[in-house]
Design brief:
Elements lengths: L1 E4 L9 E4 L7 E4 L9 E6 L3 E8 L2 E6 L10 H6 L7 E9 L8 H7 L4 H10 L2 E11 L2 E2 L5 H15 L5 E3 L6 H7 L9 E6 L9 E7 L3 E10 L7 E7 L5 E6 L5 H8 L28 E3 L5 E5 L15 E5 L17
Parallel strand pairs: 3-12, 8-10
Antiparallel strand pairs: 1-2, 4-11, 5-6, 5-7, 7-8, 8-9, 11-12, 13-14, 13-16, 13-17, 14-15, 17-18
Length: 342
Amino acid sequence: MRSQPGGGQDGWKGWEVTWTLPEPMLSTPVSVPDLRPGCAAEPKWDGFRALISVDAGQVVLRSRRGTEMAASFPEVVAGAVQLPDATAIDGELVVWDATGRLAFERLQNRLARRGAAAARAAAEWPAHFVAFDLLRLSGTDTTRWPYRRRRAALESVFTARRLIAPWVLCPSTTEPDVVREWLTWASVGMEGVVFKRLDDVYRPAVRGWQKYKVRETSEAIVGAITGPLTAPRTLLLGRYDEQGRFQYIGRTTTLAQAAGTAVVGLLAPGRPGHPWTGWSFSAGWSSQENLNVTLVEPELVVEVGVDVARDASGRWRHPARWHRARPDLSPTDVPRLTSPPR
């Protein structure tokens, strides 16, 4: 929130408080899906994290990295008329396909569309806003409320306002059996579960929640490619270690044409001082051949499928399988490179 002088004869009669969207509260990975006492669980959606605020008819739709997304999702902006004024919600933007499966690629393709193109995309592949937290309600900042109270208020908004599409209320449970059922939903694109303490306030930019992902996927940063920038053949991936050094962790299998096309516009040529300047990369673990690579700025995060085989430095011993680009994430969201236990 920001305060500024109000009106009056002396110009300082009172203070007008301008409320702004906070940074999103974040989560940290856990290795087991155990629902602990005093916690609730929610499904983890395969979409884009988003926060929305409506205030005196002005709608702000923002990504977790602060990118304004209202122009890309006009149907969500139009749907904000259903919400109480001076209200803000945290949630996930998703797109469902005709079979009921979450279609991340369709969602991703909509980010670059504006105007008439965005309207056509909204008609063909409408987005929904899955609401899982309440940050403000009718002018009252709710971030200092405990989760259980915020959740009850969010449910009341859906009931009282009889919200319909694009709004979807995210399920929440304190029952372990329900969590186990959710973990079987991977076939429709559900990623896992998020655990939240019932008495926890909403803490912007703090990793106070926990997440368990069902799929064996991981994030890495693209540091170089083989093939031309206009048609990458494979991606060389890295992670930062505990000392902040950008280290090579592995290479993808050969990209399909669609995957190569998906990353072309997201890569930038490496600038002088690139962390891998002067490095050489082997074509394989037992190969003496060095790859001919092109360095790119280590900015693009990608999600890849990997197995558990690693070398002593923590690098993947087998090629990673391309899954998708994650331009909604920043390099700081990628796990640090750590050596496996000995």
